[in-house]
């Protein structure tokens, strides 16, 4: 009798009882009959169909005629209690640290008059009657206040840490037990995208379409991080495609900013690039890439990174450092009284 492993709790098949059955390990969300060896997963095993297993087990034996796959998220399990308490303290502390820095930057930015801002424009074509040709033109849309934008990415992080520390704590810990943290990638998709837009405006990029594209592709990079973790749950051999695609997406904003800085540096008569802008570009480029290195160390299980929760703490620390570096370099260059 053929039966199939699927996610959920153990339920004995109603047709069980005739000796042992051959079980083919197959994830419910991976259709078809791919070989577990080809999929990089656990090979088939022999079990007794008459065995009644505890409800909190990880997998379910399904009767091929009557059973249905349970929902993907219906997976019990959590991280060890001491580590859960430690991460709770980390999240509470980081929520406070981000919130305090955000409030400080907000107060500093409004204390300076006028508020430091960068112009955002829209480009279009207009018809030149003198030359009878289409020529590029620009229209000012609004001024992007730099200080409040910096405060915004602090507040986004503070809200995320508070959420996983309190209302979503159980979901967060169950996700960590599965080697995932969707909350991290959602927060990064928003906060780091605001950061890259701030860096772009300080580098002289003003066109609204370019800024929106930079925000979007950076958000996509972080969402690839989420899909990387989801795709590799339960695998013994890492699937790297999501990581590669995320790196390609993540490189695009930095290429655009590099072109802007190179153009400003090589154009005769252009204003010199402020030193703090160069410092921001170098330090934040390194900081952004540290996150990618952290993921590689996690999936290669290098040293302490063999524990997924060690990598989780590293993500937290790197996020705080990157945001603080950008914020206080912006303060030194534009917001300082």
| CATH-assigned homologous superfamily of the largest domain | Rhodopsin 7-helix transmembrane proteins
Please outline the major beta sheet. Answer: 4 strands, mixed
Order of helices and strands: EEHEEHEEHHHHHHH
**First and last CA, distance:** 78 Å
Q: Please compute the radius of gyration using only Cα atoms.
A: 26 Å
Mean pLDDT: 84
Q: Mind telling me the CATH class of the largest domain?
A: Mainly Alpha
Strand-residue proportion = 5-15%
The CATH topology of the largest domain, please? Answer: Rhopdopsin 7-helix transmembrane proteins
Percent of residues in helices comes to 55-70%
Q: What does this entry look like structurally?
A:
With 337 residues, this protein is an alpha+beta fold. It has 2 domains: 1-76, no CATH class; 81-335, Up-down Bundle (Rhopdopsin 7-helix transmembrane proteins). It is 56% helix and 12% strand. The chain contains 9 helices and 6 strands, in the order ββαββαββααααααα. It has helices spanning 36-39, 81-111, 146-165, 169-177, 182-202, 208-231, 241-266, 275-300, 308-335, and strands at residues 3-7, 21-24, 45-47, 59-62, 117-128, 133-145. A hairpin with a 4-residue loop joins strand 5 (117-128) and strand 6 (133-145). Helix 2 (81-111) runs parallel beside helix 9 and helix 8 packs antiparallel against helix 9 (308-335). The longest helix has 31 residues, at 81-111. The N and C termini lie far apart (78 Å). 25% of the residues are buried.
